[in-house]
Amino acid sequence: MPELSRSQLLVYAVIAVAVIVIGVRWIRSSSPGPSGGTELSFAADSAHEAEGTRDVVVHVAGEVQHPGVYRLPAGSRVTDAVRRAGGFATRANRDAINLAARLSDGQQVVVPGGGVATAASAAGGQTGPISLGSATPEQLDEVEGIGPVTAQKIIEFRDQHGGLSSIDQLDEVDGIGPATMETLRSALQP
Question: Other CB atoms closer than 10 Å to residue 17's CB: what's the count?
Fold first, then answer.
């Protein structure tokens, strides 16, 4: 093999740098931007489902840097969704959400704000709906119509099914009937 001249080495180095720069730009263009970057349309969902992939589509809202709708690989966890949405915002209450919960298709992940649990929420005086994706058995037990046994059944159901994407799924939990479902709709969110 003939030796390369200095000018030939310089040309090859410039080409290598150009390829690297183009590759980095391409990778960055597929990352979430300030508006959520990878927000999805229904047409994209249909095309992706036709390919037979097993991704999940989740809506990340609340105290994250870039709220939006994101597609993640099947088996992803809440922590992956938060990371994809740019991470926690400054006011996020990181301990109020179960980062280890598996995501399910169509789920909404709501990162609550406040930074620190207030005395009212710690004492069960929660204002607003409780997130099924992050609720503890104690929080669920405080909801009218749910006792400690049913709260534990909901947690087990959530863990077995990789999360809850709808309040309607609670109808499948033993001990929750149609009358209780109506009460729960105002007290809980997916």
Answer: 10
Helix (H, G, I), strand (E, B) or coil at 136: coil
How does residue 37 score in pLDDT terms, banded at 50, 70 and 90? very low
Average pLDDT over residues 58-83: 91
Spatial neighbors of 165 by CB under 8 A, at least 6 apart, are: 104, 105, 106, 107, 108, 190
Contact 188, 129 (CB under 8 A): yes
Q: What is the pLDDT of residue 119?
A: 33
Helix (H) or strand (E) holding 131: strand 130-131
Q: Helix or strand or coil: residue 77?
A: strand
pTM of the complete model: 0.43
**Which residues, including other chains, have CB under 8 Å from residue 70's CB and lie 6 or more apart?**
32, 36, 38, 39, 40, 57, 58, 60, 81, 84, 85
d(CA 181, CA 112): 24
Yes or no: say if 158 and 132 are a contact pair by the CB < 8 Å rule: yes
CA-CA-CA-CA dihedral for 125, 127, 134, 164, to nearest 10: 120
- Structural domains in the chain, sorted by start: 36-116 (3.10.20), 121-190 (1.10.150.320)
Q: Which amino acid is at 50?
A: A
CA 190, CA 186: separation in Å to the nearest integer?
A: 11
